[in-house]
């Protein structure tokens, strides 16, 4: 039966013990999660139970900020991980319906090798693999691949565009005879065409280059905006670029991130948030603020209003993360000043709803928020970022998804077989470089 | 050669189907595990036309959650990979499989591979690159001590800085700072396999490999190869017992020799064409001659038929020595544990 309402697309991010930096310290969370394939299998099972479109795995090939001891990565869980492409290959063997979307960099991979690996997994999964394409901005990753710093934005994005075009030519069957700015490739994959033809591609990023790449080459644009207003602006900005590539508004799905603490009552939700904040190391909180251009707040008392804060610009270049816009930091500094936030309260705001949508509430409240974004030009779906695993993912599937289903916003059963089916993407149209 | 015989199974592209059917690979892996093979090896060259060349690590990652004991050995090229990426993939597979990963490294580049990656197959630097590649791989696998991860919920300490090591490699081909963002593999170092079927390959194998794959037409040839390998090992300061030597045996097995010959058709030598008893005889004589620690069997025809016909005879003759209580590939191969350079 064709649904009467437009359906939200939902991804579940499962790669680590959770999006909250101290999730691993909760008694019920396995600290091994990121290195444990069983954890990922459980995450995929949760997503399938909720009839979600795909599971998602973030990635970067380094321990970020490893040389800066103030950033306290040694107290976090997400830096040490499994190769997500291979983890998704494993998930392919034991899941049936849910899509599988690992992250991989166009800067540090070769398109022939990557196209071959992904096509193979598309066969194993019978058409359920997608790819979150990143161009890599962190210096620690660059230094693992022989560079002293990340490549400039224009070159990175040009390489990414060429990378995608070559991969699509290879997936179509080839043989390919490509001599471009970055790659010389001749030959074919020696595989039958992947079931999906063109594998779905996600990309993210706030910069103009990133938005152009999304408009040109992606099926999904992932983002992080903490407010409805910012999300609408981003949505309009990215979608407004589609026309020049011969694509329509429906050809690209905007999926901002959402992090939820969910309770049957507001107090229950708040209690879950307070519990995880209570186990967070002060050093981790201070390190995260530093990464977002705050000054070093080490030594300040936790329960007194912070002093007047000014943005740090001295190491903006190296510490800056893609998508972390200074306007969010400035807004938080203004708020700290106006509301006389204590350091502890600053941590609370920073850990939920700082750089993407964060909600502490009941399923109804969360569904209301999601529906408002979905119906007023801020989102075509959401990337669910569980603050801790598996509990927060279970909560989302058990409490929020039924509410979305009740409203006709989310499927009650899988009807398609492939990830392209779930996302309702056309097979071979509306893509730059595609044959008709 | 003392100790148990090592038995591997080469699972190439099945020339029959013309499609990519993962279920057949899964079935083959389960059969191999039930038959007590020590490892599966996924080669990387096109087996037949139309060629079906699944990417080995993706396929093995998928098989890792469907198996529990059999080793999983991927073929990979040092010419077209980056060592950080390959090490990351292998370390991940090792964790995912509970210590069953292995890698068969190919130092050169075939013509097709060179074209796919824009390389020059005649590039003499490929050999040097291969050796440096292995140095980076081993160094990255030593990034974390075994006890680097207290994951202490009470104190909030997840890992310890003093048990994490930067590699800071700077060589002619690679500059890699590290650390690897994967915890130390269960096996310490994922065992390296290499073929010794050319002069350049022999040198690379003698320097860098722990399991050497040889193939010879007859015992005399095999003895000569073995002596050459021992001499080359000595050149690189390694004892003869530092490596395990496996004989690669392509086998077309039938219920009768005629049936086997019909199946083999125009299969290129070396290879054995005969009955299960012929195969067992050959393996026994090679074993008794002391030229091999074990075998890598490559079915000339369909894998299920091969296993169904050959395994009962091999088991009957005591040529398959499944071992309980061995959890890692390294243990199955009888290789020493791999100490960290920082231990």
Automatic annotation (TrEMBL), chain A:
UniProt keyword list: Flavoprotein, FMN, Monooxygenase, Oxidoreductase
Pfam families registered for this protein in UniProt: Bac_luciferase
The Luciferase-like domain, residue ranges: 34-378
Domain of life: Bacteria
PANTHER family: ALKANESULFONATE MONOOXYGENASE-RELATED (PTHR30011), C2H2 FINGER DOMAIN TRANSCRIPTION FACTOR (EUROFUNG)-RELATED (PTHR30011:SF16)
Recorded family membership: Belongs to the NtaA/SnaA/DszA monooxygenase family.
Protein name: LLM class flavin-dependent oxidoreductase
TrEMBL record, chain B:
Domain of life: Bacteria
Family: Belongs to the NtaA/SnaA/DszA monooxygenase family.
Database matches in InterPro entries: Diverse_substr_monoxygenases, Luciferase-like_dom, Luciferase-like_sf, NTA_MOA
Residue stretches making up the Luciferase-like domain: 11-264
Organism this protein belongs to: Belnapia mucosa
Listed Pfam families: Bac_luciferase
Family matches, as PANTHER family: ALKANESULFONATE MONOOXYGENASE-RELATED (PTHR30011), C2H2 FINGER DOMAIN TRANSCRIPTION FACTOR (EUROFUNG)-RELATED (PTHR30011:SF16)
Keywords, comma-separated and alphabetical: Flavoprotein, FMN, Monooxygenase, Oxidoreductase
Official protein name in the record: LLM class flavin-dependent oxidoreductase
Gene3D superfamilies referenced in this protein's UniProt entry, alphabetically: Luciferase-like domain
Signal peptide: none
């Amino acid at each position: 039966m064709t649904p009467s309402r437009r359906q939200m697309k939902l991804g579940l991010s499962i790669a680590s013990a959770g999006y909250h930096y101290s999730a691993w310290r909760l008694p019920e969370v396995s600290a091994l999660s990121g290195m444990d394939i069983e954890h990922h299998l459980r995450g995929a099972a949760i997503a399938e139970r909720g009839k979600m479109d795909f599971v998602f795995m973030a990635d970067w090939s380094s321990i970020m900020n490893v040389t800066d001891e103030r950033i306290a990565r040694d107290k976090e869980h997400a830096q040490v991980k499994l190769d997500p492409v291979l983890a998704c290959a494993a998930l392919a063997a034991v899941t049936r319906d849910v899509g599988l979307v690992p992250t991989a960099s166009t800067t540090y991979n070769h398109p022939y090798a990557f196209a071959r690996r992904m096509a193979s997994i598309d066969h194993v999964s019978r058409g359920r693999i997608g790819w979150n394409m990143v161009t890599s901005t962190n210096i620690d990753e660059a230094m693992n691949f022989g560079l002293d710093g990340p490549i400039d934005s224009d070159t990175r994005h040009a390489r990414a565009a060429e990378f995608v075009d070559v991969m699509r030519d290879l997936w179509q069957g080839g043989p390919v005879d490509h001599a471009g700015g970055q790659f010389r490739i001749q030959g074919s994959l020696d595989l039958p065409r992947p079931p999906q033809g063109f594998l779905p591609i996600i990309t993210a990023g706030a910069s103009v280059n990133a938005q152009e790449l999304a408009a040109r080459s992606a099926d999904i644009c992932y983002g992080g905006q903490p407010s409805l207003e910012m999300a609408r602006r981003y949505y309009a900005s990215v979608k407004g670029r589609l026309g020049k590539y011969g694509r329509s508004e429906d050809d690209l799905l905007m999926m901002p991130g959402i992090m939820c603490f969910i309770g049957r009552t507001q107090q229950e939700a708040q209690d879950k948030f307070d519990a995880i904040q209570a186990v967070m190391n002060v050093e981790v909180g201070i390190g995260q603020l530093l990464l977002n251009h705050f000054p070093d707040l080490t030594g300040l008392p936790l329960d007194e209003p912070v002093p007047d804060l000014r943005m740090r610009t001295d190491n903006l270049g190296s510490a800056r993360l893609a998508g972390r816009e200074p306007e969010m930091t400035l807004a938080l500094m203004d708020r700290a000043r106006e509301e006389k936030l204590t350091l502890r309260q600053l941590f609370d705001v920073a850990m939920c709803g700082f750089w993407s949508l964060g909600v502490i509430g009941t399923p109804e409240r969360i569904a209301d928020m999601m529906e408002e974004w979905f119906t007023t030009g801020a989102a075509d779906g959401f990337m669910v970022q569980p603050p801790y695993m598996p509990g927060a993912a279970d909560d989302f599937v058990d409490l929020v998804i039924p509410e979305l289903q009740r409203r006709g916003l989310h499927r009650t059963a899988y009807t398609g077989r492939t990830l392209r089916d779930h996302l309702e993407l056309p097979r071979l149209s509306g893509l730059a470089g595609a044959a008709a | 050669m003392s100790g148990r015989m090592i038995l591997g199974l080469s699972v190439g592209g099945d020339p029959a189907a013309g499609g990519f059917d993962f279920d057949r690979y899964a079935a083959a892996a389960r059969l191999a595990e039930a038959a007590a093979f020590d490892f599966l090896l996924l080669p990387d060259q096109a087996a037949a036309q139309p060629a079906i060349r699944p990417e080995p690590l993706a396929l093995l990652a998928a098989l890792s959650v469907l198996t529990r004991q059999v080793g999983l050995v991927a073929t990979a090229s040092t010419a077209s990979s980056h060592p950080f990426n390959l090490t990351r993939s292998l370390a991940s597979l090792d964790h995912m499989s509970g210590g069953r990963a292995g890698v068969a490294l190919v130092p050169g580049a075939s013509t097709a591979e060179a074209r796919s990656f824009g390389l020059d197959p005649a590039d003499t630097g490929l050999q040097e690159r291969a050796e440096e590649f292995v140095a980076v791989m081993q160094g990255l696998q030593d990034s974390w001590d075994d006890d680097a991860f207290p994951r202490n919920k009470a104190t909030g300490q997840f890992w310890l800085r003093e048990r994490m090591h930067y590699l800071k490699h700077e060589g002619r081909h690679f500059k890699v700072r590290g650390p690897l963002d994967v915890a130390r593999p269960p096996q310490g170092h994922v065992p390296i396999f290499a073929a010794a079927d050319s002069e350049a390959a022999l040198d690379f194998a003698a320097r860098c490999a722990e399991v050497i794959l040889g193939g010879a037409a007859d015992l005399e040839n095999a003895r000569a190869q073995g002596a050459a390998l021992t001499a080359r090992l000595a050149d690189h300061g390694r004892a003869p017992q530092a490596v395990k030597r496996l004989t690669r045996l392509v086998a077309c097995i039938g219920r009768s020799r005629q049936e086997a010959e019909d199946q083999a058709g125009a299969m290129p030598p070396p290879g054995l064409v005969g009955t299960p008893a012929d195969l067992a005889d050959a393996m026994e004589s090679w074993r008794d001659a002391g030229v091999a620690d074990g075998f890598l069997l490559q079915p000339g025809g369909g894998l299920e038929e091969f296993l169904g016909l050959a395994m009962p005879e091999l088991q009957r003759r005591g040529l398959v020595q499944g071992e309980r209580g061995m959890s890692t590939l390294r243990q199955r191969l009888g290789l020493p544990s791999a100490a960290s350079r920082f231990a």
